[in-house]
Design brief:
Blueprint lengths: L4 E5 L4 H13 L3 E5 L5 H7 L7 E3 L5 E3 L1 H11 L10 H28 L1 H15 L5 H15 L13 H19 L12 H14 L2 H10 L1 H11 L10 H32 L4 E6 L2 E6 L2 H15 L7 H7 L3 H4 L1
Parallel strand pairs: 1-2
Antiparallel strand pairs: 1-3, 3-4, 5-6
The structure holds glutathione.
């Protein structure tokens, strides 16, 4: 039997939940270790960055950053394949994952730390998770500390009164598009999960357990909620579909979210970083959107562009990207 991997994570961290679902899907023996006050010292001994998830391999390697973790595991555990064999679909799946990781995190973070109900609920769950067995007073004072620490971080993701409409509009559109797409299929690319599912579900899983966004999902996203449930312990239930059947309901995601919002935003961030500008602004959905420039997003956009450049035959992919308004941002 393969020795066990150890995943240090948190139920409150979308990237941790994403990696855990992947390990479950792949049947990779693993232990889920909540990073709490008992496990923190060990986490800190291995982690280069103070971020979860952290995966320790049986060989003693420490891995961080969810996408490279999945890619690394995929080399060692190629079955069942994470991506469709068709390179065009595989790229689209990577594109949706990038959108979810980098933009889809905004609504999640925005709702969680903007509205009082959400702040209180999340801060308490984080405090309980971090301090197992603590008294009610300890939990409540820690929760208050967490709340005060997290609210100012809204600025870092560009969430403010001025951008609330853009972020919430994007979330509602995403739920609407996925609701239609998932009404008649099990996963985003057909009968089995792909990279896109792991990225996208994880952000929405967190939204589904926070009071404000979960109300939107209860009202308008019942199929999305069922898919999130499936994604917590996903199984291959069929094959990937072809673009011909996916396209009618998947193109709106690529066009109205990835092409209209995410790629222009990520490109503006990367340009600002190149010029050494500390903030950047652009018009999204007819509204001024301003945010602090972030290194990480620019790096992952560069990786995505390399991935696009590496698709040898783009005769199927390019017309799809063109129709979705994504191609100009990738070339
Ligand atoms: N790009 C990273 C992001 C990881 C990340 O941002 N993790 C957050 C939680 S979702 C974190 O650990 N924040 C600091 C903390 O919770 O202490 C990934 O994909 O793994």
């Amino acid at each position: 039997m393969t020795a066990s991997h150890r995943i240090f994570g948190s139920e409150m961290s979308p990237y941790s939940v994403k990696v855990r679902s992947y390990f479950r899907y792949k049947r990779i023996p693993h232990q889920w270790i909540v990073r709490d006050q008992n496990t923190m010292a060990e986490f800190q001994r291995h982690a280069k960055l103070p971020l979860v998830p952290l995966v320790l391999t049986p060989e003693g390697e420490a891995l961080q950053d969810s996408t490279p973790i999945l890619e690394r595991m995929e080399e060692r555990f190629p079955e069942p394949p994470l991506q469709p064999a068709d390179p065009a679909l595989a790229f689209l799946s990577a594109l949706v994952e990038e959108y979810a990781d980098e933009w889809g995190n905004k609504p999640m973070f925005h709702y969680r730390w903007t509205y009082e109900d959400d702040q209180l609920s999340a801060a308490e769950r984080i405090a309980k998770e971090t301090l197992p067995g603590a008294s009610a007073e300890q939990i409540s004072s820690t929760a208050e500390m967490i709340r005060k620490r997290m609210i100012p971080r809204l600025r870092l993701v560009g969430s403010s009164k001025a951008t609330r409409g853009v972020i919430e509009g994007s979330f509602e559109r995403l739920v609407r598009i996925l609701e239609t797409h998932l009404a008649s299929r099990r996963f985003l690319f057909g009968g089995r999960p792909a990279l896109a599912d792991f990225g996208c579900f994880a952000q929405l899983y967190e939204c589904a357990v926070d009071p404000t966004p979960s109300r939107v999902m209860q009202e308008r996203g019942r199929s999305v909620l069922r898919w999130i449930e499936r994604m917590l312990d996903p199984r291959a239930e069929g094959d990937f579909e072809a673009w011909e059947s996916l396209g009618p309901t998947l193109l709106p995601l690529l066009r109205d979210e990835v092409g209209a919002i995410f790629l222009p935003w990520s490109t503006a961030n990367a340009r600002a970083l190149e010029k050494g500008e500390p903030t950047f602004r652009l018009t999204l959905d007819g509204t001024d959107f301003e945010q602090e420039t972030q290194k990480y997003h620019a790096r992952s956009l560069a990786v995505l562009r390399k991935r696009y450049a590496a698709v040898v035959d783009r005769s199927t992919l390019d017309p799809i990207l063109e129709e979705a308004g994504c191609r100009t941002w990738l070339a």
